[in-house]
Amino acid sequence: MVAEAPSDENQPGRIKRLLNVLGPGLVTGAADDDPSGIGTHSQVGAEFGYSLSWTFVLSFPLMVAIQMVAAEIGRVTGAGIARNLRRHYPRPILHSMVGLLLVANIINLGADLSAMGAALQLLMGGDAGLYTLLFGIVCVVAEIWLNYPRYASILKWTTLSLFTYIAVVMVAKVPWREALTSLVVPDVEWNAAYMTALVAILGTTISPYLFFWQAGQEIEEQHRHHAKPLCITPREAGPELKRIRIDTLTGMAFSTLVSLAIVYATAATLHAHGIRDIETSAQAAEALRPIAGDMAFALFALGIIGTGLLAVPVLAGSAAYAVTEMAGQAGSLDAKPLSAKLFYGTIAVTTLAGACLNVIGIDPVKALYWAAVVNGVLAVPLMAVMMLIVRNPRAMGRLTLGRRESLMGWAATAVMAIATALFFAFQL
Fold first, then answer.
1. Alpha carbons within 13 A on the beta-carbon side of 183
2. What CA–CA distances, in Å, run from 242 to 22, 86, 248, 314?
3. Domains of the chain: total
4. Mean per-residue pLDDT pooled into runs of 10, the chain (428 residues)
5. Which residue range forms the structural domain that includes residue 156?
6. Per-residue model confidence (pLDDT) at position 2
7. What pLDDT was estimated at residue 140?
8. Would you put residue 194 in left (φ > 0), alpha (ψ -120 to 50) or beta?
9. Domain assignment present for 176
10. How far is CA 225 from CA 104, 168, 254, in A?
11. Does residue 403 contact residue 394 with C-beta atoms inside 8 Å?
12. What's the DSSP call for residue 80?
């Protein structure tokens, strides 16, 4: 008896099940490729070609490991990172980490909104500053007035905007033998510029705001499905932790592929034509036009806007989760605005504060530099505390992190510590 081939009728069901599994991890990974990150990767591709591609192979498993730690904190404890800090560690640690997160996120919001405004100006003309402010207002209104299931669905589908960079790679003439070889054969240059670029890649890959966001989103999904924290219902842990692994792996793989696509696209076009000095994502888009054509230019610019519409809510939302948890209050994207004033107020204030940075004339490139400094100061101690939380039975119950996962989490922390030390060594 010959086994029947799987029916095509089952395919929609399989796709639907996969989409149901994907959520916080996918959105978090996609948000990692924000406009400021696109600017960093464009600069790396333009200045160094393919020689730093190997860093993405190094960072991928570390990125997955630490994001899974964040997700498990949220799903197992039923509380975000800031609330766990409030419960188990001294208040000065909590206040300093949330304070640094707010500073870094506002600066990043300003840089991302500025890049979106500049990209729309390239496409349509007009006033970039006005576009920047309008994008900020649109993002605030969407986060405040849309209910969580609808908003989560919008964020999930917005990740498709990242495929524009896959399309740019298809338009660009990439020497694939050289590009793929660079993934496994490091071409290291022992100079300040190369080391700074290496640190910049790691810094844009592993970012504190992503930890707070993914943990917060796991709690939102828990409430949405009327589930209890896994520390209370450990028998349900198997399927839930499997879902988190699939979701996080998919999101981080997507993020890594898009980051590589941006590096490859700019290496094959800008670097190959001697254009090495790129500071922003909008500059990269504009520089592409005479080399790769109007289509590549338009796709690159549209991608900046699409990724910004995804990343801005994540940056503001992560700040809101952190602030409300620090204050011991409840906050959720599913709550009514008047019942979660601190939560939505934080979203509005941080987003509009970021937009106003551009209005008052602060240089977004210099602002990003200082955001990197703040993130560097915050990332390592925050990651260390997260690793302590997931090994703490008072927080995690019977579901403390296993030895193998702990080793990967501490490895990610160590690599970020080295990257931060290198950053300060070469920049300060």
1. 14
2. 12, 28, 10, 24
3. 1
4. 46 58 79 82 90 92 94 95 93 93 91 89 89 92 79 73 80 88 86 81 86 93 88 90 92 91 89 82 79 80 86 92 93 85 95 86 70 78 94 92 92 89 74
5. 27-267+277-427
6. 39
7. 92
8. alpha
9. yes
10. 32, 39, 26
11. no
12. -
Torsion of CA 348, 350, 353, 358, to 10 degrees: -110
Phi, psi of 400 (to 5 degrees): -65, 155
DSSP single-letter state for residue 34: -
Residue 17 placed within a domain: no
What tokens appear for 113 in the block? 């909104």
Torsion, CA 415, CA 200, CA 214, CA 74, rounded to 10: 30
Question: Rounded CA gap, 41 and 264, in Å?
Answer: 9
Tokens found for residue 34? 């924000």
Q: Are 27 and 311 in contact (CB under 8 A)?
A: no
Joined together, the tokens standing for residue 188 give 């290291």
**What value, to the nearest 5°, has the Cα angle with vertex 238 and ends 235 and 240?**
100
Q: Are 75 and 240 in contact (CB under 8 A)?
A: yes
Distance CA 83, CA 327 (A): 9
What's the predicted TM-score (pTM) here? 0.88
DSSP letters along 240-282, please? HHHHHHHHHHHHHHHHHHHHHHHHHHHHHHTGGGT-----SHH
We report the CATH number of the domain holding residue 159 as 1.20.1740.10
How high is the pLDDT of residue 3? 42
**380 and 413 in contact (C-beta within 8 Å)?**
yes
CA distances from 39 to 83, 139, 199 (A): 33, 21, 14
